[in-house]
Design goal:
This protein folds into two domains: 136 residues, 3-Layer(aba) Sandwich (Rossmann fold); 76 residues, Winged helix-like DNA-binding domain superfamily/Winged helix DNA-binding domain (Arc Repressor Mutant, subunit A). It is 58% helix and 14% strand. The chain has eleven helices and six strands. Strand 1, helix 1 and strand 2 form a beta-alpha-beta unit. The two termini are 48 Å apart.
Length: 218
């Protein structure tokens, strides 16, 4: 039997999760808490296999609570529930030992399966959280030219490597002479490339091109 502690500031949510879990023959809710301090006390006393915990608690932060749980009972797994897809929060939670991240909108059977998986030592995340992580990793691994190219391709616009270099330097505020010096080409060549960029984007004014490209990178 997998034992579970449910943690959420709202009683109605705690009871709702308890009702869902108690229907499962192999999972038992042995306690519920509304704060971080209550959570730590119950973990110390009952040593549940899994804690299903809202990521936002009214006293101790959920991430701090996870750190203390690890000290009290290293074997207890912790799954965060969240209604926000905040990449900073997700990565901070993972770095501090969360065993899973699930959105509150998930189906009940998915929650129960996640509890089983976490109890077996697996890391569990819902599809929405996985998407946030993948997008964040892509942003970290792509350089600015690659990122710009990807965003343009989504709009059916394809620039050459040299055009991308010049477009990026335009975004950074360099004029034609400065771009020429940076890329070791003539100013006339820069002007030619910029004309191609204008044509492909369907925009004729430099400031509007820069604004369009800048918005793509936000």
């Amino acid at each position: 039997m997998i034992t579970v502690l449910v943690v959420d500031p709202w009683r109605i949510i705690r009871e709702g999760i308890r009702t869902l879990i108690d229907k499962e023959p192999d999972i038992e809710v042995i306690g519920a808490a509304g704060t971080g301090e209550e959570t730590i006390q119950i973990v110390e006393e009952l040593q549940p296999d899994v804690v299903v915990m809202d990521v936002e608690l009214p006293d101790l932060k959920a991430i701090k609570t996870r750190s203390i749980i690890r000290e009290v009972n290293p074997d207890t797994r912790v799954i965060y529930l969240t209604d926000k897809q905040d990449s900073d929060m997700i990565f901070q939670g993972i770095a501090n030992g969360a065993d899973g991240f699930l959105v509150k909108q998930l189906y009940p059977d998915m929650l129960c399966q996640a509890i089983r998986d976490a109890a077996r030592g697996q890391y569990v995340i819902s599809g929405e959280i996985a998407k946030v992580i993948v997008n964040s990793v892509r942003k970290l691994t792509l350089n600015k030219n690659q990122l710009l190219a990807k965003r343009l391709e989504h709009k059916g616009i394809y620039l050459t490597r040299r055009e991308l270099e010049i477009a990026r330097l335009m975004i950074e505020g360099l004029n034609n002479q400065q771009i020429a010096l940076q890329l070791h080409i003539t100013e006339g060549t820069v002007k030619n490339y910029i004309s191609y960029i204008y044509m492909k984007l369907g925009i004729k004014k430099r400031e509007k091109v820069i604004q369009f490209l800048t918005n793509l990178l936000k």
